């Protein structure tokens, strides 16, 4: 009953509101606005924070050396190493094979499909970074849904949420855990109860959270999700692509003979898009603009209803057959599928230029979902962001190649995946070794993870030039930027001021209620800014507040850590939510519809679990 007793303690002296604290609060406000509005890419925002903190050194106390200390921080380097190790596992095809095996028995039962999704995702996410896990499983889960005549919308948000709760099983499950461990260790000199987390420090609580969350997703959550995308969806209908396709032949003596595709497009008019060239029974899908036309070539062009008649009068070409709707394209004319803009894509921030896209990716853009919303008007010039989904038509071999690139996620499984399956046992052995060395405390996780990276290259699981591709550099820069911000918040007294305000407003509440409030505050904050930024800002405040009310600081640190990995209320709080946004055809409110009850359930389970295992 002690945890339910009202707080009774001696009133603490209120920390002074200094100019230093006000300046740091201002920097924090700027950071929150930039993270929320996404006016700048997240890595650029992080660099800007370093610059601001160092320029304002007289008030923030952050000198140049401290400003860049985040790049050499143990948490940053550990996260970098774990991302590379996750990339090595991904290259073997283990994750996809696990997903396919778990889906083999799913059939047309929605509960078995959800069980396969949760069971294939959560345990793996406890040891691998969940971002590549979800990226790899999006096409697998979509195929499971389509084969079982289930809407992919019923499975994709559960996929993302299962990866988040699975990340709480171990220290290395998420970058947030590793960063929280580093902050907890740094605060240990001030609060004796705090220390760096061991590998399985909170596994018992993580298992409880994963079990409860998984049961909710399997048996209750799917009832709250609408079928935004029908099973075996007709992409053209879903994207409202109502254009017509016509075949026109280049006649003898045509002025187009010897001209390029680009010249032909300019001559035929802006509404005409040459998507294929058929020459002597050979079909070129998404031809390059510099391709030269020959006499007798048949151009497959896409246009709207009004421009169809213009083709009949165009000089140098002759219609072949009757125009038909886009939906009547045959399989040999190319596969129509979706491409999701990935976290590290070079397309982020770029304005969509279908012609340039065709040149680089050998794929014709048919439609676009931007932030989950279908772009009905002209898609040209739309600035692309993470999670945006492009409807494209491309040759099978092109999609095979794109599935191996980091710019996009192909929302269908490659027919001939290029995996190093023979290296799977080696990759698993390396991963087990990394975990074992850290768990037995032979060496810190930083050293064992770096040793694992070297082993991945030496054994051929990864090529040396693939190390850099495996790293999500925006996460690394984010960590490097927010770490000095957290230091400034502590050193300026800002954290102590916020903690005092919490203690004063919660003076009539039981300790466990204050713990729950910190959980909910973190959960709400992590839905609008980065989860890593949330723990940096709130762990020092939570520890100081716990000390101020005579509670266990470690319990409060754990509450913040767990809550930071529960971005269940919208698509922008966590990168895996963005990956499923387009393929699921979701709206913003769909996340909160299934996520709000899950957030509340896990808040109670987590807080009561912390009280039971560690006391408050």
From TrEMBL:
Domain RCK C-terminal: residue ranges: 233-317, 324-408
Principal location class: membrane
Keyword Transmembrane included in the entry's annotation: yes
Keyword field: Membrane, Repeat, Transmembrane, Transmembrane helix, Transport
Membrane-traversing stretches: 16-37, 44-62, 74-94, 155-180, 200-225, 426-458, 470-489, 496-518, 524-547, 554-574, 594-614
Coiled coil listed as a keyword: no
Subcellular location: Membrane
Pfam family, one: TrkA_C
Protein name stated in the entry: Citrate transporter
Family annotation (InterPro entries): Cit_transptr-like_dom, DASS-Related_Transporters, RCK_C, RCK_C_sf
Gene Ontology cellular-component annotations: plasma membrane
One GO BP: potassium ion transport
């Amino acid at each position: 009953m002690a945890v339910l007793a009202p707080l009774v303690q001696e009133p603490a002296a209120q920390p002074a509101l200094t100019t230093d604290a006000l300046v740091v609060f201002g920097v924090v406000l700027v950071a929150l606005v930039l993270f929320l509005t996404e006016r700048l890419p997240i890595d650029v925002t992080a660099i800007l924070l370093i610059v601001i903190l160092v320029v304002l050194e007289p008030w923030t106390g952050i000198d140049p050396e401290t400003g860049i200390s985040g790049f050499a921080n143990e948490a940053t380097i550990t996260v970098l190493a774990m991302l590379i190790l996750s990339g090595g596992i991904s290259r073997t095809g283990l994750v996809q094979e696990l997903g396919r095996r778990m889906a083999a028995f799913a059939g047309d039962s929605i509960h078995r499909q959800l069980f396969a999704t949760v069971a294939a995702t959560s345990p793996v996410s406890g040891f691998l970074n969940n971002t590549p896990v979800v990226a790899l499983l999006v096409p697998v889960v979509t195929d499971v849904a389509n084969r079982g005549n289930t809407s992919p919308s019923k499975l994709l948000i559960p996929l993302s949420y299962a990866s988040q709760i699975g990340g709480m099983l171990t220290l290395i499950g998420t970058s947030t855990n590793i960063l929280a461990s580093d902050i907890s260790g740094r605060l240990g000199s001030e609060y004796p109860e705090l220390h760096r987390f061991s590998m399985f420090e909170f596994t018992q609580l993580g298992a409880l959270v994963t079990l409860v969350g998984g049961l909710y997703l399997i048996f209750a959550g799917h009832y709250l999700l609408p079928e935004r995308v029908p099973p075996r969806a007709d992409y053209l209908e879903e994207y409202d692509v109502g254009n017509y396709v016509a075949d026109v032949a280049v006649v003898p003596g045509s002025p187009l003979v010897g001209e390029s595709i680009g010249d032909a497009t300019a001559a035929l008019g802006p509404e005409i898009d040459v998507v294929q060239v058929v020459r002597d029974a050979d079909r070129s899908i998404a031809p390059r603009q510099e391709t030269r036309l020959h006499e007798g070539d048949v151009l497959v062009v896409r246009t709207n209803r009004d421009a169809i008649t213009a083709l009949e009068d165009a000089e140098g070409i002759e219609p072949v057959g009757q125009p038909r709707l886009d939906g009547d394209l045959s399989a040999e004319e190319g596969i129509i599928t979706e491409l999701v803009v990935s976290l590290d894509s070079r397309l982020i921030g770029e304005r969509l230029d279908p012609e340039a896209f065709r040149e680089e990716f050998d794929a014709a853009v048919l439609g676009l979902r931007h932030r989950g919303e279908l772009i009905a008007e002209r898609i040209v010039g739309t600035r692309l962001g993470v999670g945006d989904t492009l409807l494209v038509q491309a040759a099978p071999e092109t999609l095979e190649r794109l599935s191996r690139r980091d710019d996009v996620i192909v929302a269908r499984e490659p027919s001939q995946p290029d995996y190093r399956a023979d290296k799977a046992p080696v990759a698993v052995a390396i991963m087990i070794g990394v975990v074992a060395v850290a768990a037995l405390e032979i060496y810190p996780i930083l050293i064992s993870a770096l040793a694992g990276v070297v082993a991945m290259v030496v054994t051929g699981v990864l090529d040396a030039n693939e190390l850099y591709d495996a790293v999500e550099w925006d996460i690394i820069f984010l960590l490097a930027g927010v770490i000095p911000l957290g230091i400034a918040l502590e050193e300026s007294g800002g954290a102590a001021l916020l903690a005092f305000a919490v203690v004063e407003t919660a003076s009539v509440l039981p300790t466990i209620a204050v713990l729950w409030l910190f959980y909910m505050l973190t959960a709400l904050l992590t839905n609008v800014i980065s989860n890593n930024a949330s723990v940096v800002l709130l762990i020092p405040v939570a520890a100081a507040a716990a000390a101020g009310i005579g509670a266990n600081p470690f319990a409060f640190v754990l509450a913040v850590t767990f809550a930071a990995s529960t971005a269940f209320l919208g698509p922008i709080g966590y990168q895996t939510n963005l990956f499923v946004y387009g393929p699921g055809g979701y709206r913003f409110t769909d996340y909160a519809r299934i996520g709000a009850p899950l957030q509340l359930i896990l808040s109670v389970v987590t807080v009561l679990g912390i009280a039971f295992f560690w006391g408050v």
